[in-house]
């Protein structure tokens, strides 16, 4: 069977101490805190904690959705897709869609700087050699 190296996704780099394990671990931890806090607040009537308040907003909601999607993709696709590749691809797609909707200008760059930073780090960790 033909397996051109140019088409195979390889690698995984690190940015200082941030490698695949740390990136996925932090993402999963933040997603767990975000989802857990929302469930406790909504269904158990618990007041929002300081930590939950710090982990709310678009960045953390996007992260929770991406972590969940990467998990489900892993369950459905098995070893065909690595979680880091799925997560990085979705972060990059998320930022691309934000810029598509808002246009690329000073305000949209400032508004999405952290999301773009996360997408860049995840891209390097997943795809760089």
Explain this structure to me?
The longest helix has 24 residues, at 20-43. Residues 1-8 have low confidence and may be disordered. The chain is mainly alpha-helical and 129 residues long. It has helices at 20-43, 50-54, 58-77, 83-102, 106-111, 113-127.
- The pLDDT mean sits at 87
Q: Please mark out the parts with pLDDT under 50 across 5 or more consecutive residues, or reply none.
A: 1-8
Give a count of the beta strands, DSSP E runs of length 2 or more: 0
The largest sheet, given as strand count, sense and whether it forms a barrel, is: none
Structural class: mainly alpha
Number of helices: 6
Question: What coarse outline follows from CA principal-axis ratios?
Answer: globular
**Rounded Rg:** 16 Å
Along the chain, the helix and strand elements come as HHHHHH
| Terminal-residue CA separation | 25 Å
Percent helix range? 55-70%
What is the beta-strand fraction? Answer: under 5%
Short summary:
The protein has 129 residues and is mostly helical.
What order do the helices and strands come in, and which of them pair?
Elements (H helix, E strand, L loop, with lengths): L19 H24 L6 H5 L3 H20 L5 H20 L3 H6 L1 H15 L2
Helix pairs in contact: 1-3, 3-4, 4-6
Keywords:
129 residues; mainly alpha; 6 helices; globular; disordered N terminus
